[in-house]
Amino acid sequence: MTSLIDHSVLLLIHRLPTLTGKVLIVADENWARVDWSTFKAIKHCSINVISNRFDVAESARAEGVNCQFNDFDLTETESHSFDYVLYRVSKERSTTHHVINAACRVLKLHGKLLITGAKNNGFKSYLQRAGNLFGEAAYAKKNGEHYLASVTLHDADRNWLNDKSYQRVRPTEALDGQYHSKPGIFGWDQIDQGSAFLVTHLEEFLGAYEQSPHSLLDLGCGYGFLACEARQFNFQHITGTDNNAAALIACRANFARHLRTPNNVIVADAGAGIEQRFDTILCNPPFHRGFKADPQLGTKFLSATQRLLTPSGRALFVVNQFISLEREANHYFNTAEVLASNRSYKLIVLRQ
What is the CATH number of the domain that holds 91? Predict the structure, then answer.
């Protein structure tokens, strides 16, 4: 199991037994494979976790670890209250800048940020910026392709890192001002080209039903683009679900803005825990967890779709051309057919 854990995360976990005082772990999707039960053996420090991923938060809580699930929102956390903040840099720059800024606010004077990442994650640049913010020239120790650094907070003038107003939900130019989004969501300031391709074939896909579908689930909804684009097809109820706190915030904003149909947004990991079944499921599934490709994610979304579809329901997935999702789908569905394709993407229809 240890071999599956992100190596930069492991560097932080290995430091925990040496720490004393109050520790905050900022855990994103890179922490998904951590065995939180091992944290029970750590006795010399008080561990608190904040995660923007529901599956990570639930796993930590299940093992008795004190964990908040939110969009890395530390505004209610007492200033200068932690001795250590542990953070493995995130995939998105604005998220990483936001967390480094937040660490500066919640650390005690002379408290330490333990920060890790790989060279190709932009780690050295992040470390330099963190050092400038904290008032210390920081240096990293190399462990293979990964680095660990300790940055001490000094009393200095603060030149906050640009996090693109991380917490603000706003219309973006790339979305023509039509959709609201925010940092912390993959591709937050653009329309995903795969999702756009799917939308162009919605009429064809929905026209194949013998009876018009009533309920729609956007599985892994992001900021809600697919569900909102499907509103024109007269669904009686629309649901969006995601495990990413930032996505849930933006999706709720877009549903409120665009949908007149009864709707809801549910926090869930690939639909886990949702009991309702749906006539239609739309999905642009992820195939990366943090910086690494994770082929198990496709299987996870297929299994969830099988459980969540009504017997006469259909799902429409969009994936990259090189991903053989239809082959894997044959283990879960009676029918898995390519509806359309272009140079980059293909649309796969799934039927029970």
Answer: 3.40.50.150
Q: What would the pLDDT profile of 32-91 be if each residue is shown by its tens digit?
A: 999 999 999 999 999 999 999 999 999 999 999 999 999 999 999 999 999 999 999 999
Global pTM exceeds 0.90: yes
Domain membership of residue 200 (yes or no) is yes
**Vertex 314, ends 219 and 192: CA angle to 5°?**
40
Q: How far is CA 290 from the centre of its chain?
A: 8
Q: Same domain for 341 and 203?
A: yes
Residue 261 DSSP label: S
Reading the block at residue 81, the tokens are 């209250």
Q: How many domains does the chain have?
A: 2
The beta strand positions in 140-285, using DSSP E, are 140-143, 146-152, 170-171, 180-181, 215-219, 237-242, 263-267, 278-283
Q: Which own/partner pairs from 288-295 qualify as long-range (CB within 8 Å, at least 24 positions apart)?
A: 289/29, 289/30, 289/32, 290/6, 290/28, 290/29, 290/30, 290/32, 290/90, 290/91, 291/6, 291/30, 291/91, 291/118, 291/121, 292/6
Q: Looking at the structure, tell me whether residues 198 and 144 fall in a common domain.
A: no
How far apart are alpha carbons 147 and 123 in whole angstroms?
Answer: 8
Instruction: Record the tokens describing residue 9, joined without a space.
Output: 């995360």
Is residue 231 packed enough to be buried (19+ CB in 10 Å), middle (13-18) or exposed (0-12)? middle
Can you give the residue range of the structural domain that contains 224? 170-351
Helices and strands, counts by H and E, the chain: 10, 18
| pLDDT at residue 258 greater than cutoff 90 | yes
Q: Which 3 state secondary structure label does DSSP give 146? A: strand
Task: Indicate if 136 and 185 belong to the same structural domain.
Answer: no
The answer to whether position 165 is within a domain reads no
Q: Which of 125, 152, 179 is the last residue of a domain?
A: 152
- My answer on whether 209 and 341 are in the same domain is yes
CB 301 within 8 A of CB 350: no
d(CA 56, CA 258): 31
* 33 shares a domain with 135: yes
> Same domain for 231 and 279?
yes
